[in-house]
Amino acid sequence: MSTQHYPRIGLLIDGEWIRGGARQTQAVINPATGEQLGEVPIATPDDIDRAADAASRAFPAWRRMPAIERAAVLQRIALAIRRHEERLATILTLEQGKRLTESLHEIRNTADTFEWMAEEGKRAYGRIVPARTPDTDQYVRLEPVGPVAAFSPWNFPAVLSSRKVATALAAGCPVVLKPAEETPGIMVAIAELCTEAGLLPGVLNLLYGVPATVSSRLIASPHIRKISFTGSVAVGHQLAAQAGASGKRITLELGGHAPVIVMDDVDVDRVIELTVAAKFRNAGQLCICPTRFYVHEAVHDRFAAQLTVQASKMRIGNGLDPAVDMGPLANERRVHAMRGFCDDAQARGARIQAGGHAPTDSQAGFFWTPTVITDIAEDAQAMTNEPFGPLALLCRFQRLEDALARANALDVGLAAYAFTRSLRAAHQIEHGLEAGNVSINTYATSAPEMPFAGIKNSGLGAEMGIEGLREHMHSKSVVRAIA
């Protein structure tokens, strides 16, 4: 797919695409080439209000639709996404930069999300509670909370947006979705498939615009009953305060800074193979990215040497090139951030074993070399602030208790990983790591059937799993006596 076939970006309000008018626009840039892909229209206050109103008007019909019929619509969306996966993956790589194979994986996960929620929405069971008196029934009904305002980021714009959309729709809630302006095309393409699959007008509305303007106006709208946000800790706290002032429930998936504990009994070759794939996926731009590596001193030097060799061999470039191992960063700001983290680490005595700089060739785009840093101080900026880039930070430890304490030292707790062959150590790690998502001997996480939640400053509530569905429903207690 060439740039000419990049979708024309528009707003979707009440079933109508809005792609013109006197609205301001913002350029969409291919991060691998610096080329402009298109322009995203900036929603006006009237657009925002109309989208919230459309969701409110669509709510009665959508909530009354039997769950099995809503599920059929979601299943059709999943099938459509699978039929168009190559086109969708190319759009995603063009605007986000990740390798095409990674984009295909994300699109398939997106289809899985709609498919799983289609089934789970049919199983939002209430319960019968034994009554205290004869001739009385007591039971609990689960009912959709109402229209949802959802906000998703640029790093995984297909699957993170679709988590919010599929869950809300399965629960019976219409959605006003504001994806990231940096990566608008993928959700325009998916929203088109949603409407073609039979989604009622107003059930899914799509807005782009000034983030603070859209969020504050939607949260204040009397039509919106729930907010779902994935993004930074600082912005999440602001939205939580606004939602609290309006008495509205909110789900937050915020930043992380994932630690990895590597014990002395591991197969280093195998762990390195897994680590290279996980650490440099999407150029390290994911909230569950393994970053702070606490490696037992018995295997630290071998682990560091092998990771350095593998990182140094990686080829970076345009994600559409099948020979490339890692794509670009999202924008120039991320390049400056990586440079700042590396300079600070070196100033504090760390050693850069691989990477640590922008590519030396003259290619356009926003690139940074895969970077391995050893002997890094615990108070280095990269150790205390989520780098959100291709930086692997290595530290030594002797005692597992010390590694756990250092892993838990930050005020975030989204994901954490560990590698060991010892059942005793695995048990201690599983119970000791302070994170909402813990993976042992694997970097796998985030399956649709599992809840995805952070603790501490990494979030509030859960996405996906039955827990995520319940976030979009309220409990109604019913007591019915025979007259």
Kindly report the average pLDDT value: 96
Predict the CATH topology of the largest domain.
Aldehyde Dehydrogenase, Chain A, domain 1
Any idea what the shape is? Answer: globular
Low-confidence stretches: none
Describe the structure.
By secondary structure, the chain is α/β, with parallel strands linked by helices. The chain has 15 helices and 22 strands. A seven-stranded mixed β-sheet has the order 14-15-16-13-12-18-19, with helices on both faces. A six-stranded mixed β-sheet has the order 9-8-7-10-11-21, sandwiched between helices. Strand 15 (371-374), helix 12 (381-384) and strand 16 form a beta-alpha-beta unit. The chain is globular and about 75 Å long. The chain starts with 10 loop residues before the first strand and ends with a strand.
Question: How is the secondary structure organized here?
Answer:
Elements: E1 11-13, E2 16-18, E3 25-29, E4 36-41, H1 45-64, H2 67-83, H3 85-96, H4 100-120, E5 127-129, E6 136-144, E7 148-151, H5 159-171, E8 175-178, H6 185-196, E9 204-206, H7 211-220, E10 226-230, H8 233-246, E11 249-253, E12 258-262, H9 268-279, E13 290-296, H10 297-313, H11 332-347, E14 351-354, E15 371-374, H12 381-384, E16 391-397, H13 400-407, E17 412-413, E18 415-419, H14 423-432, E19 437-440, E20 455-456, E21 459-460, H15 465-470, E22 473-481
Parallel strand pairs: 7-8, 7-10, 8-9, 10-11, 12-13, 12-18, 13-16, 15-16, 18-19
Antiparallel strand pairs: 1-2, 3-4, 5-6, 6-22, 11-21, 14-15, 17-20
